[in-house]
Structure formats: structure tokens, C-alpha cells
Design goal:
The complex is a heterodimer of chains A (160) and B (787).
Chain A lengths: L1 H28 L16 E2 L2 H13 L3 E6 L4 H11 L2 H10 L1 E6 L4 H6 L7 E5 L5 E6 L4 H17 L1
Helix pairs in contact in A: 4-6
Chain B lengths: L3 H23 L5 H30 L6 H6 L6 H6 L5 H23 L4 H23 L10 H9 L21 H16 L1 H13 L4 H31 L9 H25 L7 H21 L15 H26 L12 H33 L9 H24 L6 H19 L21 H7 L7 H20 L3 H30 L1 E2 L3 E4 L6 E5 L2 E12 L13 H6 L8 E17 L2 E9 L4 E8 L10 E13 L6 E8 L4 E3 L7 E12 L2 E13 L2 E5 L1 E4 L5 E6 L6 E9 L2 H21 L7
Parallel strand pairs in B: 7-9
Antiparallel strand pairs in B: 1-16, 2-16, 3-4, 4-11, 5-6, 5-8, 6-7, 8-9, 8-10, 11-12, 12-13, 14-15, 15-16
Helix pairs in contact in B: 1-2, 1-6, 2-5, 5-6, 5-8, 6-9, 8-10, 9-10, 9-12, 10-11, 10-21, 11-12, 11-14, 12-13, 14-15, 15-16, 15-18, 16-18, 18-19, 19-21
The chains are: A alpha/beta (160), B alpha+beta (787).
Chain lengths: 160, 787
């Protein structure tokens, strides 16, 4: 009986210290709530649903297409997609210079997601300044797949 | 007016209250009449629920969109099987299924025991209480709610834009990701597992309350059943993720799959505890019932995770909130379990067990139980504390720089210890203890040494991943352990299982023999699953996505690393039962038969491209002539654009335009008796409007160094309610899967990503072994003893 009690206490201590340690580690190393969504591949996005209307205003002013990025914190593919695809130097340059970018958090902006028929992340929706959907890119695609798409949409919108 | 389905739910609630009162009164007083009512009342309750489920299914099969839930998860053009599976596609339906199975188990309990023992009566009381609560939850979010009760519809009716008795003509449709065989079986397996957890829980609570004998007999058999269904449900979910989501793996520590894995782990712990508890009532007298109760609580927790907004994941198919009710339920059961457990603990302190040192079967088993608890806690904590931080501080946090890293590093060391415990326990023999300890220590030594082995990349965490550098030091320390260290304990566990199997095979009497074989098979299953998971996770080769032009059909396209892909065929089809003629589209033969009805009007045709000719009519202007065949006839269509419209032959197109007669083209020098004048905007690729669910499929062959290594079809399902990928998975005998994800046709090119995934088959074999093993174990004791 004593041995069992001893093991139990040991395991309890182990569990509690694990819980405390991982909690602290997450808070100090992996806090993702920053105001500029800078964790999204280092690209500056307009935030969330409130940013969508504003995004279209900018888009109409500058005649730029809108790219809406649906992501989620728990989405592992998003993390890689952000660093490798959106963060790809060529893609990033075009997106930052020629697009109005809006990020949608699937956990928060659920209504927008439902409205645009997005059910999983990562998911990109490209629109012209008037909100007409031009292209949908579901899934964590690679940069060399995305690059021609962002180039073509930019050119198409410019031409109009 | 209350819908028929809801009425049935209320009625079954009423009869279960009668049964409940009958059971409670019997605790104090034997009233003959009331006693006779109990079993029929429960049966009636189960019957009424069955009926309500059948009615819901009927609404789905006949696409009765007057019901909101039917409208939300179905559409008229779905094949029958997906209409039926629509009943469990959303939360409302799954709760109904859950409560139905709880009542069916209550009915089974009533039937087999006749409520003759106090244990069976009291277990029934708790089962019924759970059942009634689940009925209330089902009613709150009733699947029988009418569409005219929807807030936006109510608004529109008030404004007069919709009639009072509005019924939509077509449903919203099932999410494209769910239009798949595995998804028709995954939810029922899960929810049958969830529901059957009720009886072990009820029996355990009764035991904690009143020390009723025989609870473990009752609880164990149900727990095995639950273990099988929950386990298979999780496994099928993994298969789905692998075959449909294109995860390239079957386990990604998604919050929801993790949430259902947690009760399965504690349930496994319970089954181990019960095995010893059955032989000696003093052993695990508290641990066993607590584990059963905790498993049930964790099932409720999983239900919250699945549909609450906090733990959003791939399961976010529909959202709503019955969370509060469930949370209250969890609170009550948790407090009750802790209080009862503590009471029992202080009662038992008087009994002093002889202390035989650390190395005895009970203690080693106890360590095993704790390992299951620790593994369950790691998963529980990993999905819970980020949600807690978000609720309490409004901050979003990740658990590690890459979510799966967290679960992998913490679970890995305990998995090693678990395998060591498996090896030691399964072959435990009091007489040869000293020798067995020696072997165990050698294996432990080997595991520790192999942890330090350096290889190119075979570590707990992937060093080549961009997330690696961002992990904190302790995570890196564990992540630096070589995965080779899993093999000594794994081989030890396998060896031990084989030893045990041969022992069992020597037994003459048939029942223990079958049971023993079952136990050995289940443990082989563990080894196979771990082997498959670890090898496939570490040795998957992923090639970058390539875009192969559809025009280069039939040619071998190199994609790097010596691999190549050849597109054999491309086709589109519509996934529906109705005829494949899109709305508004006219059959070409009809145009030729009655041209007077169509000439000089707007017409839409659809079919396959059989011929294309392009002429430059002016600088920067091209006329494209496309011949479309819809199976009845073929017709030329023409469109002008500032670029050639090069649609490959065989492409499915829907073309709208203006029909002309006797058109003489100067550029081609041909006179067309009938021609459709179109514009690029009116040409839609794919039979997109042919149905809500359109499937693009591409037949492929995969080559390595010019040798064919795999072939098959990769598909992409597109619909208004989302899209889904169905990768090509070609398995070989060696266990290596050729895995190609197709993300839908874009701009005339086919985007494909190739993965070479080894050893996945081991995991599937392991899952099958789990099922066979537990069924053998269950089969031995077919009927509960007459208590």
C-alpha cells in the first residue's frame, strides 16, 4: 500500500509540474495574439471581419484585388503554408504591394467563413474590388502553384 | 404545434420518469404493480426513440426540407446512402443517436437482468438519469426544428418576402468532405462508443456508493464493447483523414481526434484495472471505478470539444451551443466521482495490505494504469489549456511552435515506459521474477543508450522542419532523442507477447485459451500501430506540388528525385442521382429536331469538347470554334477573345450563347448551318452546374526511374458547401503507399503532390488486430452470470 501511495504522489507531482511548465512555456514562447497578425508569415494583414469592409474600400481606391486568408491557430498546415508559400519572397512581394490582404480566423470569423463556403484552413479566396470571387485556393499549396495565380489575378484586375 | 419527432422525445422522457420512479420506490417498498411497469416503460422509451430516429431518417430520405436540420445537411440530389448518413452529420442528429443508443443499452440491461439485483436496478437508475438529461439536450437543439423557426426565415416571413408555410425546394447540401464512405460510418461508431460508456459509468458509481458486488462483470463487458466502438471510430476517423483530407498521415493531434482519444486511453486503463480487480476485490478497489467514471466524464468533455467554438478544428461542420448543459453535467459527475472516491479511500485506510515491495504484479499494473492516465492527461492538457488561456486572458497561444511537437515530445517517453511495462507485465511470473527483472533492466539500458544514437533524421522531432529552431530548450532536449530507442522496448514487448501467446496455446481448456489469444492479439495490435505511426511519420518523402498541363496527357512528366507522373485520363462527373442534364441546358438533339424554337434566342448547351479550331481574326483578336458533344448530338460554338481559348479535347464545358443559322465564316471559309455565338464569360469549365457535387477525377501513373510504381485515380470534389480532396492511395505489399493529392483543375493544369509513405499498412493491421482481439475476449463470456 505504501509503495502505491508513493508512486501515486510521484506521478501527481510529475503531472502537476508538467502542466505548470507547459502552461508557462506556452505563455512566454507561443503567445499568438498580437495586433498586427504579424505571425501570419510576417505579412501584414488587415484583421478579421471588421477589416473586410475597410479592405474593400482600400481595394476600390487603389483598384487592387482582395485576398482573404482563412487560417486557424491549431492548423499545422497553415504554419508551414505561411512561412513557405505566403512567405515566399516572390509571392510575398506581390501580395504586399499589389493586394489588399485580409486574414480571417476560422475560430472567430465563423460567419464570414460560412458566407464564403470555407470549411477548413488554410484557404484563400481572391476577389475583385467589388467583392466578386475570382478564384478559390483551398489547402496548403506550394509557392510555385500560387505565384502564377496571384500574378494573373493582379494583372486581370489591373486591366479592367 | 410540437413536431411529431419532438412529441416522441417528450413521450420517451415521460415513460422513463415512470421507470425511474418505479426503480426508486423499489429501494424502499415493493409495490407489485409499479415493479411490473419498470421494464415495459424502459422498452417503450427505447421504442419511441427508435421511432423518432426512423422518422428523422424518413425525412432525410424523402428530402423533407420543412425541417431545418434536413435542409442544413442534405439535398435532393444526394445518393441515398448520403441522405441516410446526413442524419448524423450534425450535432442535433448525433445527440439523438447518442440518446437512442443509451436507451437501447438500458433496454438491454432491463432485458438481461430483469432488475432482479440491487446492482442492476441502481445501475439502471443512473443510466436513465443520463438518458433523460440527454433527451433534454436533444430537445434544446432538436433535429425536428422547422425551417420557418430559423431566425432569418422568421424575419423574411415577417417582412412578407416568404410565405408562412415556406419550404425550400432544395437543401443546403452535405459538406463535400463528408460525402465519403468512411464518413458514413465514423460518426455512428463514435457515438455508439460514447453512449455505451454509460453503463460502465453507472455501475462504477453504484459500486462506489454501495459496494455492490458484481459491478465489474457488468461494467467490463460493456467497457470492452465501448473500447471496440470508440477505438474503431477513432481509427476510421484516421483513415478518413488519410484518404480524404489529404493529411498524408492518419493522426495530426487535431483537438477533436485527440479529445476522443483521451477517454479511450482511460478506458484502456480501466480494462487493465478491472482484470486484476476481478480476481481480488481489494485490488484497485478505488482505481477501477474511478477510471470507469473518469472515462465517461471525458466522453462528455469530448462531446463539448467536438462542437464548441473553443476547440475549432476540421470538425467544424456546424456550430451551436448545448455546451453549458453538458458542462453542468460534467461538473456534477466530476464532483460526485471525486467525493465518492475520497469517501471510499478513507473507508479503506483501515485495511492494511501486506507490503511486498515494489516488484509485484499489482504494483507493476498500477504503474501501467498511471501511464494511461499520464498519457491521457498530456492530451487533455494540450487541448485544454490554450482554450483556458483564451477564455481567461483573451490570448491565443499555441502549445509549441508546431502543435504536434507538444504531443509527440511529451507522449514519447511515456510510450517507451508503457512498452516496457507491457513487456514486463504480459510475461510476469512470480517464480522467475529475478530473471525477468534482469531482462527488463537490460532493455531499459538499451533504450537509454539508443536514445543518444545520431542518425540523419530519425528523432522525436523533425530537425529539418522550420519549427524545430523555435522550440524551447527542454522541448529540443526531448526532441533530440533518437527514435531508434523505441525499438528495444518494442522488440521486448513483441517477444513477451509471443511468449505469452505460446503459453496460452498450451492451455487445454478452450475458454481461457481463446481469451488468452485475444489478449495477445490486442497487444500485437499496439506494437503494429506504433510501428506504423513512427515509421510513416519519420520516413515520408514529400515532393513539391507540380502543375502538369492537361494537354500533356499521356506523357511522362518528371517531377524530381527520379519520380515522374503520367496523366492517363481526366474526367468530370456529377455525384447525384438525378439526370446529368444541368438546369437550363438544352439537349443538342432537341435543337436540331426543333431549330425553329431555338434560333435567334439564348441557348445553353453542355458537353465534352470534341474539336477546337482557333483563328486570328484581327491583331489581338482570336475566334475560337469549339465543337461540343453532349452524347445526343454535337454543335459548334464560337467565341471571340483577345487570347485563344484553348480547351483540350474531352474537357467538360457548359456554354451559353445566341443561336444562329447559316453562318458563313470568312476566316475558316465554312458555313455553319447552326452555331452558338458565345463569349468567354459564358463558357464555364466543368459540368459545374450539372449538380451540386461535381467530381473531377484524374487517372494517373506514378513512375520512379521510369519504372511504374503506382497507379490509380485522384479526385477532387467541388460543391457549393466546400470542397474535398480524395488522394490516390496505392498500397504495395511492402507497406509503402504511393499517395497523390489532386487539388482541382486550375487554368488547364493539374496540380499534383506526390508523397511516398512507408509502413502505413502496419497501422491498419494493428487496428484490425485490436478489433479481432477484443472480439475474441468478449466472445468468451457470452452471457452475464445469473446474479
Amino acid at each position: 500500500m505504501r509503495t502505491k501511495k508513493l508512486i501515486s504522489i510521484l506521478v501527481l507531482v510529475l503531472i502537476l509540474s508538467f502542466a505548470y511548465f507547459s502552461y508557462k512555456t506556452a505563455l512566454s514562447n507561443f503567445t499568438l495574439s498580437d495586433k498586427n497578425s504579424s505571425y501570419l508569415g510576417g505579412i501584414k494583414f488587415h484583421r478579421a471581419a471588421a477589416g473586410l469592409e475597410e479592405g474593400f474600400q482600400f481595394a476600390q481606391q487603389d483598384n487592387k484585388p482582395v485576398m482573404m486568408y482563412f487560417w486557424a491557430i491549431w492548423c499545422q498546415y497553415c504554419a508551414r503554408f505561411q512561412t513557405d508559400t505566403l512567405g515566399n519572397t516572390q509571392v510575398k512581394k506581390i501580395l504586399e504591394e499589389d493586394y489588399v490582404l485580409v486574414a480571417m480566423d476560422l475560430d472567430i470569423d465563423r460567419e464570414v467563413a460560412q458566407q464564403y463556403g470555407v470549411s477548413y484552413p488554410p484557404y484563400l479566396v481572391f476577389m475583385d474590388p467589388n467583392g466578386k470571387i475570382l478564384e478559390r485556393v483551398p489547402g496548403a499549396v506550394e509557392a510555385d502553384y500560387l505565384l502564377p495565380i496571384v500574378t494573373k489575378i493582379r494583372d486581370d484586375v489591373r486591366r479592367k | 404545434m410540437i413536431p411529431l419527432g419532438d412529441t416522441l422525445l417528450y413521450a420517451s422522457m415521460a415513460v422513463s420518469v415512470i421507470a425511474l420512479v418505479g426503480l426508486l420506490v423499489r429501494e424502499f417498498k415493493d409495490i407489485e404493480l409499479l415493479n411490473k411497469l419498470i421494464t415495459p416503460a424502459i422498452m417503450l422509451g427505447a421504442g419511441l426513440l427508435t421511432l423518432s430516429y426512423l422518422i428523422l431518417t424518413y425525412y432525410f430520405v424523402y428530402s423533407n426540407f420543412a425541417y431545418d436540420y434536413v435542409w442544413q445537411y442534405s439535398s435532393a440530389d444526394l445518393p441515398l446512402i448520403y441522405k441516410i448518413s446526413g442524419t448524423w452529420a450534425g450535432q442535433q442528429g448525433t445527440y439523438l443517436l447518442w440518446v437512442l443508443v443509451v436507451y437501447l443499452s438500458a433496454a438491454w440491461l432491463a432485458w438481461t437482468t430483469g432488475h432482479r439485483t440491487a446492482l442492476s436496478r441502481r445501475t439502471q437508475v443512473i443510466t436513465l438519469l443520463t438518458g433523460i438529461l440527454l433527451i433534454i439536450i436533444t430537445l434544446v437543439q432538436s433535429p425536428f426544428k422547422l425551417i420557418i423557426q430559423r431566425p432569418e426565415v422568421v424575419d423574411m416571413i415577417a417582412k412578407g418576402t416568404l410565405p408562412l408555410d415556406f419550404v425550400p425546394l432544395e437543401g443546403n447540401g452535405l459538406n463535400a468532405l463528408l460525402v465519403n464512405f468512411w464518413m458514413t460510418v465514423h460518426p455512428p461508431l463514435m457515438f455508439i462508443g460514447y453512449a455505451t460508456m454509460t453503463i460502465p459509468f453507472a455501475a462504477a458509481i453504484v459500486y462506489l456508493l454501495t459496494k455492490e458486488d458484481g459491478w465489474e462483470e457488468l461494467g467490463r463487458q460493456w467497457a470492452r464493447f465501448t473500447w471496440l466502438f470508440l477505438g474503431m471510430g477513432i481509427a476510421v476517423g484516421g483513415v478518413w483523414a488519410y484518404l480524404v483530407l489529404g493529411w498524408g498521415g492518419f493522426w495530426a493531434w487535431d483537438p477533436v481526434e485527440t479529445a476522443s482519444f483521451i477517454p479511450w486511453l482511460t478506458l484502456t486503463g480501466f480494462l487493465h484495472a478491472a482484470a486484476l480487480h476481478r480476481k481480488n476485490k481489494a485490488t484497485f478497489a478505488i482505481a477501477a471505478p474511478i477510471l470507469a467514471a473518469v472515462s465517461f466524464i471525458l466522453v462528455l468533455y469530448a462531446a463539448i470539444v467536438v462542437r464548441s467554438g473553443l476547440f475549432n478544428s476540421v470538425h467544424a461542420f456546424g456550430d451551436s451551443s448545448t455546451g453549458t448543459l453538458l458542462l453542468v453535467f460534467i461538473g456534477i459527475t466530476t464532483i460526485a466521482t471525486i467525493a465518492l472516491g475520497l469517501r471510499r479511500y478513507f473507508e479503506e485506510t483501515g485495511i492494511v495490505e501486506e507490503d511486498r515491495g515494489f516488484w509485484n504484479k499489482t504494483n507493476v499494473f498500477y504503474v501501467t494504469l498511471l501511464l494511461f492516465v499520464v498519457l491521457a492527461f498530456i492530451s487533455f492538457w494540450g487541448i485544454s489549456f490554450p482554450a483556458f488561456i483564451q477564455l481567461s486572458q483573451g490570448l491565443k497561444v499555441g502549445v509549441a511552435s508546431d502543435t504536434k511537437n507538444f504531443f509527440n515530445i511529451w507522449s514519447y517517453p511515456f510510450t517507451i515506459i508503457l512498452l516496457l511495462a507491457l513487456g514486463f507485465c504480459l510475461n510476469y511470473n512470480e517464480k522467475q521474477k529475478e530473471e525477468q527483472k534482469k531482462i527488463l533492466f537490460i532493455v531499459i539500458g538499451l533504450s537509454i543508450i539508443t536514445m543518444f544514437l545520431r542518425t540523419e533524421n530519425f528523432y522525436v522531432l523533425d530537425h529539418s522542419s522550420p519549427f524545430w529552431v523555435r522550440e524551447p530548450p527542454l522541448y529540443k532536449l526531448i526532441g533530440n532523442i533518437s527514435v531508434i530507442s523505441i525499438f528495444p522496448p518494442m522488440i521486448y514487448a513483441a517477444w513477451s507477447t509471443i511468449q505469452r501467446l505460446t503459453d496460452y496455446l498450451r492451455i487445454k481448456s478452450i475458454k481461457p485459451k481463446i481469451k488468452g489469444i485475444g489478449i495477445a492479439i490486442v497487444h500485437f495490435g499496439v506494437i503494429f500501430i506504433l510501428l506504423g505511426a513512427i515509421i510513416s511519420a519519420n520516413f515520408t518523402q514529400s515532393m513539391e506540388t507540380v502543375n502538369i498541363p492537361l494537354a500533356s496527357k499521356g506523357e511522362l512528366e518528371p517531377i524530381g528525385n527520379g519520380y515522374g507522373i503520367k496523366i492517363i485520363d481526366f474526367s468530370t462527373r456529377s455525384l447525384s442521382e438525378t439526370a446529368n442534364i444541368p438546369e437550363g441546358v438544352v439537349k443538342i438533339s432537341e435543337i436540331f429536331n426543333n431549330p425553329e424554337n431555338y434560333v435567334s434566342t439564348d441557348v445553353k448547351i453542355g458537353g465534352k469538347v470534341t474539336n477546337v479550331s482557333i483563328v486570328q481574326s484581327a491583331p489581338g483578336t482570336y475566334s475560337t470554334y469549339i465543337r461540343i458533344d453532349d452524347g445526343t448530338e454535337s454543335l459548334w460554338a464560337a467565341a471571340q477573345a483577345n487570347e485563344p481559348l484553348n480547351y483540350p479535347e474531352g474537357t467538360e464545358l457548359t456554354i451559353g450563347g445566341f443561336l444562329m443559322t447559316n453562318f458563313k465564316s470568312n476566316s475558316t471559309g465554312t458555313t455553319y448551318p447552326l452555331i452558338l455565338f458565345s463569349t468567354p464569360e459564358q463558357i464555364i469549365q466543368g459540368a459545374a452546374s450539372a449538380g451540386k457535387y461535381q467530381v473531377q477525377s484524374v487517372r494517373l501513373e506514378v513512375y520512379q526511374d521510369n519504372n511504374k510504381i503506382g497507379s490509380g485515380v485522384a479526385e477532387y470534389l467541388n460543391s457549393e458547401s466546400g470542397s474535398g480532396t480524395f488522394p490516390l492511395v496505392d498500397s504495395s505489399i511492402t507497406g509503402t503507399d504511393i499517395y497523390v493529392i489532386f487539388q482541382g483543375l486550375g487554368g488547364g493544369t493539374v496540380p499534383l503532390s506526390l508523397k511516398i509513405i512507408p509502413a502505413v499498412n502496419f497501422a491498419w493491421i494493428g487496428i484490425v488486430l485490436f478489433a479481432i482481439g477484443i472480439i475474441l475476449i468478449m466472445a468468451v463470456r457470452s452471457k452475464p452470470k445469473n446474479e
